[in-house]
Amino acid sequence: MRDHDSLPYSMPALSDEERIARARNMRDRLKERRSCRYFSDAPVAREAIEAAIEAAGSAPNGANHQPWHFTVV
């Protein structure tokens, strides 16, 4: 393979302190997650729904197959 055939994935060089800070931040944010068991019948702007679906559709997936389907109710 020639060097210009693909670009390597790279991350910025981080100090150990920055890695630790980022890991702790992610841990703290994940601790705040909650499962939604109650729903509202309040209307949601179509643009907000479309933006959420676009974000979800860009998630990493195996072999770039995008094996998901979205339903708006």
What would you note in describing this structure?
The protein has about 70 residues and is an all-alpha fold. Helices cover about 40% and strands about 0% of the residues. The chain has helices spanning about 15-30, 45-55. It starts with 15 loop residues before the first helix and ends in a 16-residue tail after the last helix. The model has no long low-confidence stretch (mean pLDDT about 85).
Rounded to an integer, what's the Rg over CA atoms? 19 Å
Number of distinct beta strands = 0
Overall pLDDT: 86
Instruction: Report the structural category.
Output: mainly alpha
| Total DSSP helices | 2
Low-pLDDT segments, ≥5 res: none
Please state the overall shape, judged from the principal axes of the Cα atoms. Answer: flat
Task: Give a summary of the structure in a few sentences.
It contains two helices and no strands.
Features:
single chain; 73 residues; mainly alpha; flat
What order do the helices and strands come in, and which of them pair?
Blueprint (H helix, E strand, L loop, with lengths): L15 H16 L14 H12 L16
